[in-house]
Specification:
The complex is a heterotrimer of chains A (183), B (318) and C (198).
Chain A: H1 2-48, E1 53-59, E2 62-68, E3 74-84, E4 89-97, E5 102-110, H2 124-127, E6 133-134, E7 139-141, E8 150-152, H3 158-182
Parallel strand pairs in A: 7-8
Antiparallel strand pairs in A: 1-2, 2-3, 3-4, 4-5, 5-6
Chain B: H1 17-39, H2 41-64, H3 75-85, H4 93-105, H5 121-132, H6 134-137, E1 140-143, E2 153-156, H7 159-163, H8 175-180, H9 192-204, H10 211-230, H11 237-242, H12 246-253, H13 264-284, H14 291-308
Antiparallel strand pairs in B: 1-2
Helix pairs in contact in B: 1-2, 1-3, 1-9, 2-3, 2-4, 3-4, 3-5, 4-5, 5-14, 9-12, 10-13, 13-14
Chain C: H1 2-8, H2 24-29, H3 34-57, H4 67-89, H5 91-97, H6 108-118, H7 123-153, E1 155-156, E2 159-160, H8 170-173, H9 175-197
Antiparallel strand pairs in C: 1-2
Helix pairs in contact in C: 1-7, 3-4, 3-6, 3-7, 4-5, 4-6, 6-7, 7-9
Chain lengths: 183, 318, 198
C-alpha cells in the first residue's frame, strides 16, 4: 500500500510543480508573444499601406483591416488570404487602395514552399509584380509578361506562383466586396 | 528449340557480362548518333562527360575498397551512356559529371557493386540531378542552326511539358516528327525509330527479356486509350509512347537484369506497374515525365515481386 | 579522471547522432540552415542538462514504477519553457523551428540519458554527461547543417560563401538532402571507426 501512495504523491507533486511554474512563465511571456504576433502582421501592413491606425474587422469570416491616416481618413484596405500551395498552406496579406481599384501590394505571412524554389514567392522581385495592378483577375505566365494582367512565374516554381496568384484573385474579389459595402 | 533463362538452376550461358554490356551499348548507337547529330557538339560533350565521370568514379571506388578494378566489363560505361541519354542536351557539364558520380557512388558502389544495386544507377543519377537542379533539368533546347559546333541553343519545352498541362491536339508535334526525333527532348530519347530497332535487336539476341517492355507497352496503350477516348484534354496513346522517355526506359532500362524481377510472372507485374505509373504520373502528377520515377519505384518493389512470384521447387509445398 | 571521460564520451565516441543514431527527427528536419541547427542544438542542451540535473537530484525519491511519467513531465516542463522563451524573444527563430521545439519532449536522447545515466548517478556526473551529450548533439547538427546550407543555398549563416557561379543543389535544402548527407557522414564515420578498432 505504501508504494502506491508514494507513486501517486510523486506524480501529484511533480505535476503540480510543473503546472504551476509553467503557468507562471506563460503569464509572464504571453503579452510579449501576442505583441510579436501582432507586430508581424503590422510590419507587413506598414510595408503595403503606410497608415497611422489599422482597425481589424471580420468580413465573411476573413480578417480584414481598414487603414486610416492621422486625420482618420481611409487610405486603404487589407485582407489576410489563405490557400493551398505546393506544400502546405500559404497565408498572405493583400492590400487595396481606398477605391478598391488597385492592388497596393502583397506580402507573404506564412508558407512552407520548397526552399530555393517555391520559397522565392517571398522575394521582392516576385512580390513587387503585384504592386499597382488593377484589381482584376491576374494570370500566371511562363516567361516574359506581356498583357496587363500577366504575372511572371518563378522559374521552376510554377505551381507556387500559380497558388499565390489564385489566392490573390480570390481574396481581392472578397475585399472588393467589402470596400463596396463600407464606402 | 527455345531457350529461356529464368530462375536457377541453369546451364551456364556463353554470354559473358562484358559481351552483354557492349552489345547493349552497340544497340544504343543509332539513337546516340542521331542525338549528337541533331543536338550538335554539346550532346557529344555531354556523352563524354558522363562516361568519363562514371568510369572514373568506379575506378576510385574499387581502388579505395581494394577490390579488383573491373572497368573492362563496360557496366560503368553503359551507366554513363544511359545517363547522358536521359539528360537535357544543353545541361551544364559539371552537373552531368556530378550526376555520373552520384549514379555510380550512391547508385551502385554503396550497395556493394554490380549485381547488388537495388536501383538503376543511371536513373538514380538523374533523379538526384532532377531534385538538385529542377530548373536546369527541365530546360530543354533545340539546336541553334548556325553551325555544327555552335554552343548556343534556344530553350524550348519538350512536347510532354508543353502538351500535358493543357492538351491542344497533336498539332505542334506530329507523329513523323516524334518518330524521327525532330523535337526537343533528352539527348538519347528523341530518335524513336533508332530506339525501337536497337531494342528489338536486344530482345532478339535474348539479352533483354520481351516481357517487361511488352507488359509496359500494353498497359500504357490501354490506360492512355481509356483516358484519350473518354476524357477531353488527354494526349493520345501514340503521343504517350513516342514523346517522352518511354522507349528508352522500357527497352533499355527496365530490362536491366539486376534491378528487375527474375521470374517470368514477376516481369509481367513489373512491366504493368511501370506502364500504369507512367500514365498516372504524367496525367496527374506534378512532373511532366514519369518514366524515370516509374522505373525507380518498380525497382524498389522488385525484391517483393521476386518473393511473391518465386516458382515452387519440384515437389515443394506452399 | 572519471568525470572527464563522462563528459568527453558524448562528443564523439558515443555521439548521440553519429554513434547512437538517436534524435533523428530534429537531425533530419531542422538542419537546412546552420542557424536552425545551432538553435535546435542549444535548446536540446538546455533541456537535457536541466532535466538530467533535476532528475539526478530527486533520483532516490522517484519510485521505479512511475519513473517514466515523472521524467516525461519534468522534461516537458523544460521544453515548454524553451518554447515560450523562443516565442517571446526570438519569434523569427521559433517560427522556423516550428513544431520541432515542442517535439524535443519525445527526443530519445533526453529520455535515453535519464534512463541510462542520471537516474543512477550523482548530480555532478549527470550534469557532465548531459552537457557532453548535448554538445555532441549540437556538434552533429552543426556539421550536417553546414554541409546542407553550403550546398543547398551557397550560404553560411545567411552570408553567401560560394559566389555567383554556384548553382545551389535544391535537393540539399529538401528532406532527401538530409537523409543523403547524414548517410554519407555515417558511412565515412563508420569506415574510420572500423579502421581504428582493427
Amino acid at each position: 500500500m505504501n508504494y502506491r501512495v508514494k507513486m501517486i504523491l510523486t506524480l501529484l507533486v511533480v505535476g503540480a510543480f510543473s503546472g504551476g511554474s509553467l503557468s507562471f512563465v506563460y503569464n509572464k511571456m504571453l503579452p510579449k508573444i501576442e505583441a510579436n504576433l501582432k507586430k508581424e502582421i503590422e510590419n507587413s501592413l506598414l510595408l503595403l499601406v503606410p497608415a497611422a491606425s489599422y482597425k481589424e474587422t471580420s468580413f465573411q469570416g476573413k480578417r480584414v483591416f481598414v487603414c486610416r491616416d492621422k486625420a482618420g481618413e481611409v487610405v486603404g484596405y487589407a485582407i489576410i488570404g489563405k490557400g493551398g500551395g505546393f506544400q502546405g498552406e500559404i497565408s498572405l496579406l493583400i492590400a487595396l487602395d481606398k477605391e478598391g481599384k488597385k492592388i497596393l501590394g502583397i506580402d507573404i505571412l506564412e508558407s512552407q514552399e520548397t526552399p530555393g524554389l517555391g520559397a522565392k514567392i517571398d522575394e521582392p522581385f516576385f512580390k513587387k509584380q503585384f504592386k499597382e495592378r488593377e484589381a482584376e483577375k491576374l494570370e500566371v505566365i511562363k516567361g516574359k509578361a506581356e498583357k496587363e494582367n500577366d504575372i511572371e512565374a518563378i522559374t521552376g516554381a510554377t505551381i507556387s506562383s500559380r497558388a499565390v496568384v489564385s489566392i490573390v484573385n480570390n481574396y481581392v474579389a472578397i475585399l472588393k466586396e467589402f470596400v463596396e459595402q463600407n464606402r | 528449340m527455345k531457350l529461356v533463362v529464368t530462375t536457377s538452376p541453369h546451364i551456364r550461358s556463353s554470354l559473358s557480362l562484358q559481351k552483354v554490356m557492349y552489345t547493349v551499348i552497340l544497340c544504343l548507337l543509332p539513337a546516340l548518333f542521331w542525338g549528337i547529330y541533331y543536338f550538335h557538339i554539346r550532346a557529344l560533350f555531354l556523352l563524354i562527360t558522363c562516361s568519363i565521370s562514371t568510369v572514373v568514379t568506379e575506378i576510385i571506388f574499387k581502388k579505395v575498397r581494394k577490390k579488383p578494378v573491373s572497368i573492362g566489363d563496360g557496366s560503368a560505361l553503359l551507366t554513363g551512356v544511359l545517363l547522358a541519354m536521359v539528360l537535357p542536351p544543353y545541361l551544364p557539364l559539371w552537373m552531368a559529371a556530378l550526376g555520373g558520380f552520384v549514379a555510380i557512388s550512391l547508385g551502385k558502389e554503396v550497395f556493394g557493386g554490380l549485381g547488388y544495386n537495388i536501383f538503376n544507377p543511371a536513373l538514380l543519377g538523374r533523379a538526384f540531378l532532377m531534385a538538385a537542379f529542377p530548373v536546369q533539368l527541365t530546360t530543354w533546347g533545340i539546336p541553334a542552326r548556325a553551325s555544327w559546333t555552335s554552343l548556343d541553343a534556344i530553350t524550348r519545352a519538350t512536347p510532354l511539358a508543353t502538351t500535358l498541362p493543357k492538351f491542344s491536339g497533336n498539332g505542334l508535334y506530329p507523329l513523323q516528327k516524334l518518330l524521327f526525333g525532330l523535337h526537343p527532348g533528352s539527348m538519347g530519347e528523341v530518335f524513336s525509330i533508332g530506339l525501337i530497332v536497337g531494342g528489338l535487336i536486344l530482345i532478339a539476341l535474348r539479352i533483354a527479356d520481351f516481357r517487361i517492355p511488352l507488359a509496359a507497352f500494353l498497359t500504357l496503350v490501354i490506360l492512355s486509350s481509356i483516358f484519350y477516348f473518354t476524357g477531353e484534354n488527354y494526349p493520345s496513346p501514340s503521343f504517350h509512347l513516342l514523346a517522352g522517355g518511354f522507349l528508352l526506359g522500357a527497352l533499355f532500362m527496365a530490362t536491366d537484369p539486376v534491378t528487375t524481377p527474375y521470374t517470368k510472372k514477376g516481369r509481367w507485374v513489373f512491366g504493368m506497374g511501370m506502364g500504369a505509373l507512367i500514365v498516372f504520373i504524367r496525367l496527374f502528377g506534378g512532373y511532366p515525365e514519369g518514366v524515370m520515377y516509374s522505373i525507380l519505384i518498380m525497382n524498389a518493389f522488385t525484391p517483393l515481386i521476386n518473393r511473391l512470384t518465386r516458382p515452387l521447387p519440384l515437389g515443394g509445398k506452399k | 579522471m572519471k568525470s572527464y571521460i563522462v563528459f568527453i564520451k558524448g562528443l564523439w565516441r558515443e555521439n548521440p547522432v553519429f554513434r547512437q543514431i538517436l534524435g533523428m527527427c530534429p537531425t533530419l528536419a531542422v538542419t537546412g540552415y546552420l542557424s536552425n541547427g545551432i538553435a535546435m542544438g542549444l535548446a536540446v542542451v538546455f533541456v537535457l542538462v536541466a532535466s538530467s540535473t533535476v532528475i539526478s537530484i530527486f533520483r532516490r525519491l522517484i519510485p521505479k514504477q512511475v519513473r517514466m511519467p515523472t521524467f516525461i513531465v519534468i522534461i516537458a516542463t523544460f521544453v515548454v519553457l524553451v518554447d515560450y522563451f523562443l516565442r517571446a524573444n526570438y519569434p523569427f527563430l521559433s517560427k522556423k523551428l516550428g513544431p520541432y521545439v515542442p517535439l524535443i519532449v519525445v527526443n530519445c536522447i533526453i529520455m535515453g540519458r535519464q534512463e541510462a545515466f542520471s537516474s543512477k548517478n550523482p548530480v555532478w556526473l549527470s550534469f557532465l554527461d548531459a552537457l557532453g551529450m548535448g554538445i555532441g548533439f549540437t556538434l552533429a547538427l552543426v556539421i550536417l547543417s553546414t554541409v546542407r546550407e553550403i550546398l543547398g543555398f551557397g550560404t553560411l549563416l545567411g552570408h553567401p560563401v560560394l559566389g555567383q557561379w554556384f548553382t545551389p543543389w535544391v535537393i540539399m535544402a529538401l528532406p532527401p538532402g538530409a537523409f543523403l548527407s547524414l548517410g554519407v557522414i555515417l558511412g565515412i564515420n563508420n569506415t574510420f571507426q572500423k579502421k581504428s578498432t582493427r
